[in-house]
């Protein structure tokens, strides 16, 4: 089959790779209907994290089950399924605690699983899914094609934006600032709106992203950054800052912006993968009682909550995809995101 | 009047100082019935934070109102009052948000207030209280003497232990580890018990403190620290750690212990004043979804909740005082705490 392999900086190629095969009783083979490129895929693409040897890439996909191991009971051949950006058994103590990204038996796409099998990267034609029962969620029926983009966001960005909001504790009537206007930041706006925030500020300098932010529920847009951005936030909120700030970038600059935008006693929910040496200024946090909560989003744990609203069209997070390309053009998909010509690119094998 | 002045390392003296005088309409003069020495007073006492010039010290007291400014309406001459370890107006946006330690008009004992008056240190005979209405809480009647120690803990340590538990989110049925067996740590155990924790681990190596910990609700004691301590905690909780960990020390070592003792998705509530360069390991926090929340405890905001249980003897946080001395022996009070001969010392002018 064909799958994407990253070879180094700005070098991703669609290549012939071995077809996946079932190897444990609990696995499944899924034919990919749609995959996409993640902001975090850009770190190796840009060479920020070096690629030591070529490897499969991509961790977001939806598809149709083609085969299942003999122990699989929750999905069957022909089901349309959503996969989170990791695999998990759904039964260990961490999964039961809702932190399925810390599954004791789980793993990541494009890597060997803990039983020695291989979990394919998502930017390909097929994926072998370890722990199919714990990992995959089947929709009640095969959805219409126009729902695919929104369903695909449940694999990562919508669940991750939701995790930022939930980790911060966004509640009805609260005020929220979202730092980061990528797909995750935009989804964090949508998540905050769903959770009842009364005022949502998008920190964004890009007209196209501001438009989506408004559609998703942003009530205010702030283009300024740094001291000026913090001052603009405080001016909106009694001079002290917002109740909750959602950090969806992962740089030192964005984390500082987030912490300084929270009011005393506020909370930063963060989901930006800490890139480089992002540090938390503990004395500032202590003095202002600003908390920091978040991490690798346990998106699998959120699918049941978010899926009905996608299926009923109450929310349309798929709006973050502003470019669709055939899988054959995966290199162009990366380039478009790298050059900010697209917010997020959907790929169809 | 007499009040305590710190001159430098291991040099605290009771000295004659000017009597406090009312200087704004909103202030009050309180005759101190009981004060005490705080773990944080030991930082300057030990020279860890240098004393550049002699200054008043002490920030925990209860007493009787002797005089009030013309604008004061919530307390009157003769009232027995509890003062938090800071003054606050009770009306600014941060006070309304429950974060009275960030009061826009507040200040600290032993320092000038924002209107240019002086707020005396608590380890003395009398204290001028700026913002008497926002700061002081009167008990319904003058309490019996044996209640004084527990009432005094509402000025700091009980409220601070409660803040650790509330910041972490301790809830009925949850599991808690408390790092630190000083007065605040012990009160954090009591607070967790009140909030319904089903299992509470005290990290303690001192038999006297272990005994109080048990009285306050600890179900388990762990003496080990570092890797061994973390392993012992994990062994108690499904191999993954506790739901909530309360950090009540403020060193890098104690914060590391706390973070590593929390299960994935858990929360560290911290109230130990960060001493030196305590850092938060953001990549570990991100990977495990362990959050960190807390800071300078807004104890004034908790008095109304905790006071009835003290008055009805449901809780007896005053148990942390294992030595009472006359104010004249303040130097011995510091020495006893410094040398760990006492958990916490109560002073009576």
UniProtKB/TrEMBL annotation, chains A, B:
Top-level taxon: Bacteria
Keyword Oxidoreductase: yes
Transmembrane helix found in the keyword field: no
Any one GO molecular function term: zinc ion binding
Domain Enoyl reductase (ER) span(s) in chain numbering: 8-347
Cofactor list: Zn(2+)
Keywords per UniProt: Metal-binding, Oxidoreductase, Zinc
InterPro entries membership: ADH-like_C, ADH-like_N, ADH_Zn_CS, ER, GroES-like_sf, NAD(P)-bd_dom_sf
Record PANTHER family: DEHYDROGENASE, ZINC-CONTAINING, PUTATIVE (AFU_ORTHOLOGUE AFUA_2G02810)-RELATED, ZINC-TYPE ALCOHOL DEHYDROGENASE-LIKE
Family (UniProt): Belongs to the zinc-containing alcohol dehydrogenase family.
Protein name: IMP dehydrogenase
Species this chain originates from: Cryobacterium luteum
């Amino acid at each position: 089959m064909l799958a994407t392999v990253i070879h180094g900086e700005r070098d991703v190629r669609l290549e012939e790779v071995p077809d996946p095969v079932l190897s444990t009783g609990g696995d499944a083979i899924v034919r990919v209907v749609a995959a996409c490129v993640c902001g975090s895929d850009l770190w190796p693409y840009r060479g920020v994290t070096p690629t030591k040897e070529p490897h499969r890439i991509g961790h977001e996909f939806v598809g149709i089950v083609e085969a299942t191991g003999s122990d699989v009971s929750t999905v069957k051949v022909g089901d349309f399924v959503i996969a989170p950006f990791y695999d998990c058994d759904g039964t260990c103590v961490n999964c039961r605690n809702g932190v399925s990204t810390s599954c004791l038996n789980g793993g990541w796409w494009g890597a060997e699983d803990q039983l020695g099998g291989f979990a394919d990267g998502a930017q390909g034609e097929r994926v072998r899914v370890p722990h199919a029962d714990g990992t995959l969620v089947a929709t009640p029926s095969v959805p219409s094609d126009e729902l695919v983009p929104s369903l695909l966001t449940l694999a990562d960005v919508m669940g991750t934006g939701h995790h930022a909001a939930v980790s911060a504790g966004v509640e009805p009537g609260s005020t929220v600032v979202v730092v980061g206007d990528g797909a995750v930041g935009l989804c964090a706006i949508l998540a905050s709106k769903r959770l009842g925030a009364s005022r949502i500020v998008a920190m964004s300098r890009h007209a196209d992203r501001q438009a989506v932010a408004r559609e998703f529920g942003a009530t205010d847009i702030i283009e300024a950054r740094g001291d000026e951005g913090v001052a603009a936030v405080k001016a909106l909120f009694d001079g002290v800052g917002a109740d909750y700030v959602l950090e969806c970038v992962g740089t030192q600059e964005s984390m500082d912006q987030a912490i300084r935008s929270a009011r005393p006693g506020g909370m930063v929910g963060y989901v930006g993968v800490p890139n480089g040496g992002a540090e938390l200024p503990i004395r500032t946090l202590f003095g202002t009682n600003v908390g920091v909560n978040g991490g690798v989003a346990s998106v699998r744990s959120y699918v049941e909550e978010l899926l009905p609203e996608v299926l009923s069209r109450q929310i349309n997070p798929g709006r973050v995809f502003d470019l669709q390309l055939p899988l054959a053009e995966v290199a162009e998909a990366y380039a478009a995101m790298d050059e900010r010509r697209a917010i997020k690119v959907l790929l169809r094998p």
